[in-house]
Amino acid sequence: MKDVAFGQYYPVPSFVHRLDPRLKLLFLIAFIVAIFLASNFYGLAVCAGVLLVAILFSRVPFGKVLRAVRGVVFLILFTAALNVLFYRGETVYWSWGIFQVTEEGLIFSAFLVTRLVLLVTCSSMLTYTTTPVALTDGLESLLTPLKWIRFPVHELALIMSIALRFIPILMDETERIKNAQKARGADFESGGLIKRVRAIVPILIPLLLSAFRRADELGDAMDARCYMGSKNRTKYKKLRFTWRDLLAFFWGAALITGVVLLRVYMGAPV
Amino acid sequence: MHAIEMKDVAFSYGEGAFRLNKFNFTVEEGEFVAVLGHNGSGKSTLARLMNGILAADGGEIRVFDTLLTDDTLYDVRRQVGVVFQNPDNQTVASIVEDDIAFGAENVGTPREEIGRRIDFALGAVGMRDLRTAMVARLSGGQKQRVAIAGVLALKPRVMVLDESTAMLDPRGRREIMDVVLRLNREEKITVVLITHFMEEALLADRAVVMNRGEIVMEGTPADIFERHEELVTYNLALPRIGAICKRLQAGGMPVADTLDAEKLAEEIVRCVS
Predict the structure, then answer these.
(1) Which of B77, B104, B111 sits opposite A238 (nearest CB)?
(2) Confidence (pLDDT) at A167
């Protein structure tokens, strides 16, 4: 299987793995809010510190964590480059036409890059430490109030967990189809952008076809196992709030307070 | 008692395709029946009719005392578990125990009972140590055993295997057959094994051959093998070793039927000495 870091569960027993998925989801939201609230490097440093502690407690190796960042490295570099070249500032180091590299621009880019890296890392930490099932259970539980307005919470959660279950299968399948088309002389490596995009069509169509066939078979298998929607359904795994969750909760609350205080007292990065 | 009784069942996929017409088939409680047939013989349709995934156009399907109707659909499905062909397309959850729990959760089983059923099902398929493993990392044979366990969690009385070994390697096939035999012998689960592998049919109490929506041969696996020339007309060939057995028997050497090269060698030695 091709190595997809993002969205893969990393199975080790750890403090973070055992946390209630609902708390982890809320923690992630709080963390993202904190990252956006952080108006200077001190704020980001606090976020990074909190994240670092989370990584240490999760026992997920750093290499694994960095791999998640590698997946979006192009996006990060692109954002950084744009900001370096277009940010207007006082101290100009170099300029050419509309491009201008300024001290402020460099600082701002660094700030943005840190933000992005933190965002990607914290989101992938959630998927590394939480099984897809726990994640969807957590989501289902958090969204339960929406049942009141007849929002299909259970169905949504099931769709999510099935999607997650099929990611590795469809990745494998893509690889297989790609190789099969290569064996028939398809060329995916050369040519311009348009030619390359068009080369994807012979991969996409068999992939879609097979996905439909799989969906059909899975539907039969679910029927055969008496699936009747959320009606009268029980849950094997009950989510339980424990002392660990309480600890993590305070940790998250401290993070937000810290970042807000830093924002109020220390101001903007430049 | 009949575990499954199909009386005058009619079913059609529409113009051009084969159809089941006045189809009669019974499976006794505790029996292990193999249904043989080449592609398109209607054997998979049979599996899907037995627990109401396909609805018959006419006739009656009875599972133990229950007549299959819209109202009893889920009672029937609880009693008749079906394991399908593709090991990748039957699991809804990423973790073994969560997937096994799925069926039991669907019918509203209490939590503690689900836990017990997972224990039971994992034990029955010999996978206790893989309870929290990721399904994606398992071998084909292990995935199919998880599928069997998922069906067992509903405590069915009949298990239908619809070509469940077709996509497995020889080792995976042996794993599944071991489990199926054990379930039949020890848990007294009635088994309907749909397959095109003769070796597997040999293990059954009774074998049935289907062709174009009809049952064309029926008997003990040994009987069916005896009529191997007839099998060929239904696009089913006796495996090589089995064919050699038949030719030896025809030539006057009283070897026992087998599909295993080693066993045949022993048989020949026995006959010669």
Answers:
(1) B111
(2) 84
Look at residues A112, A109, A117, A154 and name the one whose alpha carbon lies nearest to residue A136. A154
List strands edge to edge, sheet with B66-67. B19-28, B2-12, B58-63, B66-67
Q: Does B92 touch chain A (CB under 8 A)?
A: yes
Residue of A nearest to B52 (CA): A224
pLDDT of residue B182: 93
Q: How many residues does the structure list for chain A?
A: 270
Cα–Cα distance for residue pair A179/B238, rounded to 1 Å: 35
Contact B111 A214 (CB under 8 A): no
Q: Has the ipTM of the complex gone over 0.90? A: no
Whether residue B38 contacts residue B236, with contact meaning beta carbons closer than 8 Å, is answered with yes
Q: Pairing state of beta strands B158-162 and B80-83?
A: parallel
CA distance to A184, A188, A189, A207, A230, per residue, from A197 (Å): 18, 9, 11, 15, 41
Helices A103-129 and A62-70: crossing angle in degrees, nearest 10, is: 120
Give residue-wise pLDDT tens across range B97-119. Answer: 999 999 999 999 999 999 999 99
Q: Where do the domains of chain B lie?
A: 2-238
Query: Is B120 part of the contact surface with chain A (CB cutoff 8 Å)?
Result: no
Q: Does B273 or B191 have the greater pLDDT score?
A: B191
Q: Which superfamily does CATH assign the domain made up of B2-238 to?
A: P-loop containing nucleotide triphosphate hydrolases (3.40.50.300)
Under 8 Å between Cβ of B6 and B26: yes
Q: Which of B48, B135, B154 sits opposite A225 (nearest CB)?
A: B154
Return the domain boundaries, chain A: 21-266
Pairing of strands B32-36, B190-195: parallel
B135 to A165: CB separation less than 8 angstroms, yes or no: yes
**Measured between CB atoms, does B108 come within 8 Å of chain A?**
yes
Kindly report the average pLDDT of chain A as a whole number.
84
pLDDT for the residue numbered A269: 52
Q: How many helices (H) and strands (E) does chain B have?
A: 11, 10
Helix residue spans in chain B (DSSP H): 43-50, 73-79, 96-106, 111-124, 140-152, 170-186, 198-201, 221-226, 228-233, 240-250, 261-272
**Contact call for B84 and A220, based on CB within 8 A:** yes
